[in-house]
Task: inverse folding
């Protein structure tokens, strides 16, 4: 193609109106014939980021697989809100087994399709952060190590939401959950080392690893499409704000997700075969206060007895991410080849 | 064709003849030889098409089998003991979903203390999971039961566990007939799933079910087991017609006609019990034995019928419910509750302790004299127990019992007898 690519930016976001794009580049959701794989009528809370992320991800995967898709779901909010007996929101073949085994069940489906010569049928495993980074991690790591032909999607809302907002291995420092209450001298979750699943996935050298948020749904769809264009174990980690668990306004889900990225707290990138290939740069560098202060799970850091010391430690995490992934660039392009970020591609 | 062959090998070859499409493998003794042999056949291409998945745990093994089965593939795995417990959540799930997975359980004790030898604690731990549990008496039966298991599982959409005694059967070499490929093909039609993950006809499987319907779903699982109860004997009859030998069925009585004392047991110990019965018969005791092949579903009527003439029932069990007593005994008691006979439980062979013919002969003799306690532990060394109890009374920090006992015994290497 000789034509110069044109970029359309609206103020403050990467959103590009569909009408400005050629048909082929338009979003899956803008297509009236999209599959609506996770159909309306489910029981998610208002403003649920997980419902939004799943809807976009699965519809994009359906388009990429020409409708030949099977999804395996771990126990969690997505499973519960989508299949209240005797109804289901799923318009694709969908299987829920137990909480910690979705990656292995997905492997089984993929093995069955392979043995039956149905490699046109693609398999997605999906779980919340608890089902991915904690109880499902053994099965996930095994699936990665064998390079089974599964795209695994983690909908990360940073806690065990379905059981009432308890801490998971993906809960960030200082966040209040029902098992890390905002009391005592160190309120909220501890400052541990964290469990950075995208990097753990990369350490398995699988073909494709990416992170995304529900703030940039076009990017999310593109990553699903890229993942579906490959074979073997692939991993997509989507940040999905949970208004109920985070104490954010249901109308702020996109804003909260965008701020997670713009502060540097949630790096958005892609990696192939263990090496970071693209990062989504921060467009408007934002201090972490802007992100934290609109979520009640961090309310104990502000107000009458503010804890600027803790906020500073969280800012340090954001700064470290920015340096590690090279999230601040002068270049205006939205995807760029990063400098080799220290410690990420090693 | 009769061949001298290891039990595990015979089971592996039989399973291969059943054309499983997905096999999941995770090592644990005494099941390993089975899964190794199947793996080698897949690797060599003699079992094809088949996906052999080396998983990272038994939990994953059963989970992969669940996914594969739900996607319409004939799925198989094998495990033992700790492995079965490690996968237990998925074991229940497979049954709840009604997926016709077949699993070999090479029966082994459960730790602590860790012990790799045979007993039936593992099978009993999943007694209520909704799996059909068939117990093999011999290696021939172990092989044959697998052919029947796939057929039963797939006809009824229920998972089937073929239980065979670890080491005693799995590692024993005997002459037996591995069911031939052509015969198995004639007996076992391709798998036609009742529910399947199919993009052209999407269904949701595994939805949450609340109080409004859970009991009904569970009751349907019970009905499937009752259907199995009716189907197991007819399948065994069809099998015997096709293969020319008797294997499977619900119960297998031996010398029970006119017997006053009847022993009830599961698995390979039945062979030794039959020998003991022969000896006691020669001595004039009217004794017999009933083997239970189908432990779940439990054949209440067939058991009552087989035990109908007995004055005394002696249940010999390789497992027990700690704090109570017999597990199988409870079922037998339920089956014979209206019969005029006594029931005694004998716990024997735990952790691989040999159940000798001599001990059984003495047991039968004592039973015939009405000298058996309600609950007896066969060949229990009371001296060892008294020493450890004394140590525990003497000092608070008496230390770990298992290790104390080993020190008392001066055991350097385990012995079975
Ligand atoms: C083995 C097991 N342990 C615990 C639970 C209870 N449980 C069900 S869903 C859930 C939380 C799920 O959290 P996550 O995976 O993060 O998904 P979310 O609901 O947050 O989307 C828990 C703890 C369970 N169902 N099974
Ligand atoms: S609790 Fe959170 S994740 Fe669960 S449905 Fe509500 S908003 Fe969505
Ligand atoms: Mg969660």
Result:
């Amino acid at each position: 193609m000789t034509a110069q690519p044109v970029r359309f930016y609206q103020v403050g976001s990467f959103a590009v109106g569909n009408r400005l794009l050629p048909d082929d580049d338009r979003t899956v959701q803008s297509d009236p014939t999209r599959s609506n794989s996770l159909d309306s009528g489910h029981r998610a809370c208002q403003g649920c980021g997980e419902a939004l992320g799943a809807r976009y991800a699965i519809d994009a995967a359906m388009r990429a697989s020409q409708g030949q898709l099977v999804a395996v779901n771990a126990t969690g909010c997505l499973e519960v809100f989508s299949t209240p007996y005797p109804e289901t929101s799923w318009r694709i073949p969908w299987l829920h087994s137990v909480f910690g085994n979705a990656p292995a069940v997905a492997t089984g489906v993929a093995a069955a399709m392979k043995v039956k010569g149905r490699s046109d049928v693609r398999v997605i495993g999906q779980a919340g952060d608890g089902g991915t980074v904690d109880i499902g991690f053994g099965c996930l790591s095994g699936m990665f190590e064998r390079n089974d032909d599964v795209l695994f999607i983690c909908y990360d809302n940073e806690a065990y939401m379905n059981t009432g907002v308890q801490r998971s291995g993906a809960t960030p420092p200082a966040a209040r959950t029902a098992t890390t209450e905002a009391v005592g001298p160190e309120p909220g979750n501890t400052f541990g080392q964290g469990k950075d699943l995208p990097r753990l996935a990369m350490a398995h050298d699988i073909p494709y690893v990416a992170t995304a948020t529900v703030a940039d749904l076009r990017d999310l769809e593109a990553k699903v499409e890229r993942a579906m264009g490959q074979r073997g174990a692939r991993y997509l980690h989507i940040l999905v704000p949970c208004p109920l668990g985070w104490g954010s306004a249901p109308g702020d889900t996109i804003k909260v997700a965008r701020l997670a990225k713009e502060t540097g707290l949630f790096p958005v990138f892609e990696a192939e075969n263990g090496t970071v290939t693209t990062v989504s740069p921060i467009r408007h560098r934002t201090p972490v206060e802007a992100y934290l202060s609109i979520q009640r799970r961090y309310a104990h850091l502000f107000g009458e007895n503010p804890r600027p010391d803790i906020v500073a430690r969280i800012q340090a995490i954001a700064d470290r991410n920015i340096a590690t992934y090279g999230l601040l660039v002068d270049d205006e392009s939205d995807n760029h080849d990063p400098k080799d970020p220290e410690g990420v591609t090693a | 064709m009769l061949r001298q062959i290891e039990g595990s090998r015979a089971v592996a070859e039989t399973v291969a003849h059943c054309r499983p499409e997905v096999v999941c493998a995770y090592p644990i003794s005494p099941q390993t030889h089975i899964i190794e042999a199947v793996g080698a056949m897949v690797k060599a291409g003699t079992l094809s098409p088949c996906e052999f998945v080396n998983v990272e745990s038994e939990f994953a093994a059963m989970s992969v089998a669940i996914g594969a089965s739900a996607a319409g593939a004939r799925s198989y795995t094998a495990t033992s003991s700790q492995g079965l417990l490690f996968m237990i959540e998925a074991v229940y799930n497979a049954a709840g979903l009604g997926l016709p997975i077949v699993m070999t359980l090479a029966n082994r004790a459960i730790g602590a203390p860790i012990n790799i030898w045979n007993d039936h604690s593992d099978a009993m731990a999943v007694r209520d999971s909704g799996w059909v549990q068939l117990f093999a008496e011999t290696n021939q039966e172990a092989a044959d039961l697998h052919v029947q298991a796939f057929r039963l599982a797939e006809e009824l959409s229920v998972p089937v566990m073929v239980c065979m005694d670890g080491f005693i059967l799995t590692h024993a070499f005997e002459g037996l007939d591995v069911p031939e490929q052509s015969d198995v093909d004639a007996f076992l039609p391709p798998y036609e799933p009742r529910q399947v993950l199919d993009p052209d006809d999407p269904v949701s499987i595994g939805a949450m079910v609340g109080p409004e319907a859970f009991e009904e779903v569970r009751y349907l699982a019970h009905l499937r087991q009752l259907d199995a109860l009716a189907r197991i004997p007819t399948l065994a009859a069809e099998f015997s017609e096709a293969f020319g030998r008797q294997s499977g069925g619900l119960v297998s009585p031996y010398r029970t006609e006119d017997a006053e004392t009847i022993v009830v047991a599961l698995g390979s110990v039945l062979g030794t019990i039959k020998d003991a019965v022969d000896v006691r018969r020669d001595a004039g005791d009217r004794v017999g034995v009933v083997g239970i092949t189908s432990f779940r579903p439990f054949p209440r009527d067939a058991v009552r019928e087989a035990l109908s003439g007995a004055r005394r029932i002696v249940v010999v069990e390789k497992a027990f419910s700690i704090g109570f007593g017999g597990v199988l005994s409870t079922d037998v008691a339920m089956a014979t509750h209206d019969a005029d006979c006594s029931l005694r439980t004998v716990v024997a062979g735990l952790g691989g302790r040999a159940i000798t013919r001599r001990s059984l002969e003495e047991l039968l003799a004592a039973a015939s004299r009405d000298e058996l306690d309600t609950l007896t532990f066969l060949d229990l060394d009371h001296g060892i127990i008294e020493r450890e109890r004394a140590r525990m009374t003497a000092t608070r920090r008496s230390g770990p019992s298992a290790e104390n006992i080993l020190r008392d015994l001066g055991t350097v290497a385990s012995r079975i007898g």
